[in-house]
Amino acid sequence: MNVSVNPMPQPAHAAEAPNPARYDAIARFFHWVFAAGILYTSIAGYALAQLPAGAERDLLSRLNMSIATVLIALFPLRLGWTLVRTAPRALPGIPRLQRVLAHGVHTLIYAVIFIVLASGFLMVPNGYAFFGLVDIPTPFAKGPLTDTLFIVHRIGCALLAALVVLHVLAVVKHQLIARNDVLRRML
Questions:
Q1: At 4, is the pLDDT very low, low, confident or very high (cuts 50, 70, 90)?
Q2: Which residue, of 44, 60, 157, 178, has the greatest Cβ tally within 10 A?
Q3: In what helix (H) or strand (E) does residue 135 lie, and over which residues does it extend?
Q4: How far apart are CA 63 and CA 128, in angstroms?
Q5: 132/59 Cα distance (integer angstroms)
Q6: Are the CB atoms for 118 and 91 separated by under 8 Å?
Q7: In 3-state terms, what secondary structure has residue 24?
Q8: Is 91 buried (19+), middle (13-18) or exposed (0-12) by CB count in 10 A?
Q9: 104-161 pLDDT tens trace
Q10: 3-state secondary structure 133-153
Q11: Calpha distance 118→137 (Å, rounded)
Q12: Separation CA 120–CA 38 (nearest Å)
């Protein structure tokens, strides 16, 4: 009887390393920071449209731009990490077409986040004070270009909001209807 014994047993998590069940801590950090930032800046951005000119509007605007600036700095890191990290294994029972569609929606979310962040920064004439501490210059003076970028930004924000709602609905469907515990992958 020939029995081979592995002299160096691997820890339980080592078997999951090439294809884990969850996203890694860095991916989860980026996901939740962007989720919170997008939620806040979306609400604040739409609130800004309702507020009259004044101190409250200026404060909310500076805070909105400052949080977006943090996301701008993190975006290349998040995108880079997405390209090099090990993706979790596919959920069982999900058809290939649905996985391809989900990947496409995630790619579209990244593209729209880029458009929203870039147009949001570029549309601001005369710079802004990052959290009231440091002046951040912006490249354009008020004019037709910043007006066009504002329109691009508004359309991008609406599209991003729709994609986020679609994303959340997909999570709810998978968590509550399909019961495949998809939410645990990002917690």
A1: very low
A2: 157
A3: strand 134-136
A4: 10
A5: 9
A6: no
A7: coil
A8: middle
A9: 999 999 999 999 999 999 999 989 999 999 999 999 999 999 999 999 999 999 999 9
A10: CEEECCCCCCCHHHHHHHHHH
A11: 14
A12: 13
Could you report how far apart the first and last alpha carbons of the chain are, in Å? 46
For residue 126, the 8-state DSSP code is T
Residue 141 identity (one-letter amino acid): A
3-state DSSP assignment of residue 176: helix
The answer to whether domain 23-84+95-186 has CATH 1.20.950 is yes
Dig out the tokens for 91 from the structure.
């959920």
The proportion of the chain whose per-residue pLDDT surpasses 90, expressed as a percent, equals 67
DSSP designation for 12: G
Cα-based distances in Å from 116 to 41, 76, 158, 165, 182: 11, 14, 10, 16, 27
Domain extents for the chain?
23-84+95-186
Instruction: Tell the residue number behind the tokens 């996203």, with chain if given.
Output: 23
What count of other Cβ atoms lies within 10 Å of the Cβ of residue 65? 22
Average pLDDT over residues 73-102: 91
Contacts for 82 with CB less than 8 Å, ≥ 6 apart: 27, 110
The secondary structure of residue 90, as a DSSP letter, is: P
> Among 14-18, 23-27, 81-85, where is mean pLDDT lowest?
14-18
